[in-house]
Amino acid sequence: MSIRRLPFSPMLLSIVVPVYREEKNVQEFIPRIRAVLGAITEDYEIIFSLDPSPDRTEDAILEHRAKDPRIKLLKFSRRFGQPMAIIAGMQYASGDAVVVMDVDLQDPPELVAEMVAQWRAGFDVVMAQRRSRQGETLLKKLVARTGYAIIKRISEVPIPPNTGEFRLMSRRVVDEVVRLKETHGFLRGLVAVVGFKQATLQFDRPQRFAGSGNYNRLWGSIKVGVNGIVCFSSYALTLSTQLGFLLAGGSFFFGLLYLLAKIFNLLPFASGNPTIVVLVLFMGGIQLISVGILGEYVARIYEEVRGRPKFIVDAAVGFSGADANDRLDKPGC
């Protein structure tokens, strides 16, 4: 049971920011987010979850930390990807509320104040919902729209469309999400599984401040969509089975028609073998698709059964020794 927070009582707010090759964006992001947080509370922390980068991203973060100890850094032993970077940051965060956001300023820092206001009003999760997407290609927008439509249709839990990782979560939501054992890290789905009172804030998503996306390229978006479909619904397996029965019945019916055409010499239906060839190729393609769908589920089972750590922290800068060690002992890290 959680204790309801008084509207303007002291609080600790954690900002979790996954980063990889974001040197230029870090320099612009930190002053903007600090200005926003300073107007809300002085009791906050900014946790950068860093996949080892070939540029000066780490140096840029540490330079700002030298001026403000509330800026903290998690550096991983290798590149684990954005989902695990987010989960790690959440696990290390100590705030009564935790905000996950990107560093490229496509998630406007100014929206954090509105999220905190909604949290103070009693919501455990406040999601930023994209009203428009500037700077994205038509293909990526189409992939996103299609993916969200499919997920909405078949998901076992409601996942609001056009909501990325940019969201505020209360402490009890963060604790429950971190406690989940799934290794895919699809935050939108994990938060939906946890539940509690949730709200959305609509916004127009701007272009990146600098550079090109390192985490959310087109293939990354497709991979995220596949996780949303496979990890939160078994419908694809059901659809594969239904399609198999449909094709088997259709093939039997077509074969019967072909036999009758041969008996009664109904040309040109019975002439040559192209129809049979096309039918065989089509059925072979469906079989391969069905095997591929099954393989996606088997692969997820394999990932879960292996029980490998979700991430490995090489350095935790800014966290007290005992506190950091306690977190390193938690499952999954």
List key phrases describing it.
333 residues; alpha/beta; Spore Coat Polysaccharide Biosynthesis Protein SpsA, Chain A; 8-stranded mixed sheet; 11 helices; 8 strands; elongated
CATH class designation of the largest domain? Alpha Beta
Number of domains: 2
The strands making up the biggest β-sheet line up spatially as: 7-5-6-4-1-2-3-8
Order of helices and strands: EHEHEHEHEHEHHEHHHEH
Main structural class? alpha/beta
CATH architecture of the largest domain: Alpha-Beta Complex
Q: Please tell me the overall pLDDT.
A: 75
CATH topology of the largest domain: the name is Spore Coat Polysaccharide Biosynthesis Protein SpsA, Chain A
Shape: elongated
* Total beta strands: 8
> How much of the sequence is in beta strands?
15-25%
The CATH homologous superfamily of the largest domain is called Spore Coat Polysaccharide Biosynthesis Protein SpsA, Chain A
Rg estimate, integer Å: 25 Å
Summarize the structure in words.
By secondary structure, the chain is an alpha/beta fold. The chain folds into 2 domains: 242 residues, Spore Coat Polysaccharide Biosynthesis Protein SpsA, Chain A, CATH 3.90.550.10; 72 residues. It is built from 11 helices and 8 strands. The protein has an 8-stranded mixed β-sheet with strand order 7-5-6-4-1-2-3-8, sandwiched between helices. Strand 1, helix 1 and strand 2 form a beta-alpha-beta unit. Helix 1 runs parallel beside helix 2. The radius of gyration is 25 Å and the shape is elongated. The N terminus and C terminus are likely disordered.
Question: What would a concise description of this structure say?
Answer:
This protein is an alpha/beta fold. It has eleven helices and eight strands.
